[in-house]
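TL;DR need structure tokens for one chain.
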Amino acid sequence: MRRLVWAGAAAAIVAAAGVAWNLRGMPPRLAITAIVSAARAAESAAPIYYRDPDGKPLYSATPKQTPDGRDYLPVFPEADAHSGEPAQPKAAAAPSDRKVKYYRNPMGLADTSPVPKKDSMGMDYIPVYDGEDSDDGSITLSPGKVQRAGVKSEPAEMRRIRTLVRAPGTIQLDERRVSVIAMRAESYVQKVADVTTGSRVTKGQPLMEVYSPAISSAAAEYVATITSKATAGIEPYGRGSKQRLTNLDVPEAVIAEMEKSRTVPIAIPWSSPRDGIVLQRAAIEGMRAQPGDVLFRIADVSVVWALLDVAERDLGNIVVGQQVMVRARSYPGRAFAGKISMIYPQVNKETRTARVRIELENADLALLPDMYVDAEIDTGSAAPVLTVADNSILDTGSRQTVLLDRGNGRFEPREVKLGRRGDGYVEIRDGVAEGDAVVTSATFLIDAESNLKAAIKGFAEAGGKQAAGGSEMMDGGRP
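>> reply
TL;DR here they are.
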């Protein structure tokens, strides 16, 4: 039971006198000793610990001297938390002319009292003096506390927030750059060029020679038509015969050669329709090819697709045209730049991801089909927006607040509406103006020291006209 009393007294002393601030930087074991000493000294007014006379962060639980023979200064339970200087025992202290405005809950709850009282655990309420808290909801701390807490402020500025969405994916062929060579009539492969799967070919390069009775018949008819005196110069006749050859997919170069030589070739040379890579070679010398049989499959891989799987939660930030940096796992340190060209209108019900397509230049053919890649999509704001440091936000879950530094140790809580986050900053859509000094460090220490939660609650309930939750009760109970 006595330990509980000591613990309650120590907690009250720490909250009321700012011992928590004085113990900053003290070794944990010494800090615990000081807190226990504070509990025991509550009744005897004995020093709770000793500190360096030069203000250095050096402490001792027992009397001590500096290397040059000076005594460490005692710190008593009623040390002046505002100036940070150790005070004398209560009996020697001069009468204070500060006026107590009200008493607040020692645990930081939104509860105040116009007269001294204890909470349910027997802990004394902490007095709040004139100048420490104001009716406009602002918070005032002494310069000593501000310095010891390491409070830093930074003005709200216009920045472009860069938010990256990371997603894995694979390299795939551009569907518009793939060609197949298939016969449209029964044919026989007489010769195949020295081209294999994986070979790089150019447009017009010979691939094979085929004989087709249907093509030979159409070619003979065409040559006869253009050489006949009866039909020479009659456009419909020549055009119809030539159209038959075109319908059989005879290359234009072969038809032009027929017109020039006026002869029918026995074997028709077949060439590549585009520059690219041979993905499939099914042609074999002497084979019989039926209509529709694919003999060659050629793809242009100078431009490829990166198909990414983007999480469903990130889809709202992604639009066509956004810049993307793609990195292949096979080439560490190298990045390929591209843009979003398509967001597929379907979400995978098992992985909860959507497919996003990126077009990438691949001039050196480094990116191969089915290669794994990792992408970073820049979903940041196109124009600068008002931002503050991410660590300056006090988030309760239902409300977000920042502390405005008004100077001279005065801080004003301000409720804000947030937007995008990125690069350590967060967009402020309402509540703060450009140039306002916003506290970026020690915000939670200020919260604990000044009962900020009560001030914020009073702001919400009274529309910014009252201070902490017990202001009305406090006003009515003043003498």
